[in-house]
Amino acid sequence: MSDPKQENTVSISVVVPGDQAMVSLLGQRDELLRVIEDSVVSDVHVRGNEITITGTPADNAVAARLIEELVLLVKHGQQLSPDVVRRTLGMLSEGSSVRPADVLSLDIVSRRGKTIRPKTLNQKHYVDAIDKHTIVFGIGPAGTGKTYLAVAKAVQALKDKQVSRIILTRPAVEAGERLGFLPGTLIDKIDPYLRPLYDALHDMLEPETLPKLMAAGTIEIAPLGYMRGRTLSNAFIILDEAQNTTPEQMKMFLTRLGFDSKIVVTGDVTQIDLPGDQRSGLKVVSEILGQVDDIAFCRLTSSDVVRHRLVAEIVDAYERFDAAGEGAGPRPAPHRAKPRR
């Protein structure tokens, strides 16, 4: 008997305009071509500037769309990579009306040839929500770009003179009572807990610019407790690690909002460090403010992780572990290695 799939197999051709575009599409030593071949079901054959795709009409359509999006990215001046190919195909498989090329070519800020852009569809929705709303919550696991993209939008707003200052804050609850035993001034003690915010800013601003902006008060990085009693106007304000706020602290922070300001709150509800049975302000805030106009909640998942591919797999594995109930109950004390003599 004949194979029904063989009978339904057809070939289509895609012509890539321009030799340079074809070189960029194929990659160095055909590296990207091999990624494309491994990523799609149809067979892909290249001859000159013509790409022949052979398979079922549905599979061919996916492959052709992938190639068209990658060519469009090349036209926009984007440098292709295996990661870009996989992310483009991932977005196409989601069936969204948003074109992957529009997501991956959305520039936020640039410095010394490095441009910060969203890398997934959810990240673009998050960035768009920041543009459209006064208060945005970015909730998701580690590595999904919650804080990094928020800081990028803050730097963009400052450069475009939409705000006159940036205020970055996070609770130092991870330190607990240990703060008193750390050496140095209070600023020295809290600095390690604010370091991720400094790191993000260093990626987006010239090295000599950041100290000047901080000295002038244009950029302020401070623990959450410093926000009490203030009204923050004409500012872009980011609360990071918000899962470690109590509901009372979350209310205190959100009510600091002044005129012509924007707030972005980021956090991961699976990494709560609050002591005892204290509730997380990030966990309950969607129930309280979910129906309030001009407030958006954006949820990122393991598919939005932009670190090493293993990070997404680690996040998924922990979610399965917790969903199975294995994470409940008392946990054994961590093993401590004996000091070497």
From N to C, what is the helix and strand string? HEHHEEHHHEEHEHEHHEEHEHEH
Average of pLDDT: 86
Intertermini distance: 76 Å
Rg calc: 24 Å
Biggest sheet strand order reads 8-7-9-10-6-11
Helix % is 40-55%
- Contiguous low-pLDDT stretches (5 residues minimum) are 175-179, 329-341
Strand-pairing-aware structural class: alpha/beta
Please state the overall shape, judged from the principal axes of the Cα atoms: elongated
Number of helices: 13
Number of strands: 11
Largest sheet: 6 strands, parallel
- Fraction in beta strands: 15-25%
Describe this structure in words.
- The chain has helices at residues 4-7, 19-26, 31-39, 57-75, 82-93, 100-104, 121-132, 146-159, 186-204, 209-215, 247-254, 281-289, 309-323, and strands at residues 10-15, 43-47, 50-55, 109-111, 114-116, 135-139, 165-170, 219-223, 235-239, 262-267, 295-299.
- A hairpin with a 2-residue loop joins strand 4 (109-111) and strand 5 (114-116).
- It is elongated.
- Helix 2 (19-26) crosses helix 4 and helix 4 crosses helix 5.
- It has 341 residues and is an alpha/beta fold.
Report a brief summary of the structure.
The chain has 341 residues and is an alpha/beta fold.
What structural keywords apply?
three-stranded antiparallel beta sheet; six-stranded parallel beta sheet; single chain; 41% helix; 341 residues; alpha/beta; elongated
Task: Spell out the blueprint of helices and strands.
Blueprint: H1 4-7, E1 10-15, H2 19-26, H3 31-39, E2 43-47, E3 50-55, H4 57-75, H5 82-93, H6 100-104, E4 109-111, E5 114-116, H7 121-132, E6 135-139, H8 146-159, E7 165-170, H9 186-204, H10 209-215, E8 219-223, E9 235-239, H11 247-254, E10 262-267, H12 281-289, E11 295-299, H13 309-323
Parallel strand pairs: 6-10, 6-11, 7-8, 7-9, 9-10
Antiparallel strand pairs: 1-3, 2-3, 4-5
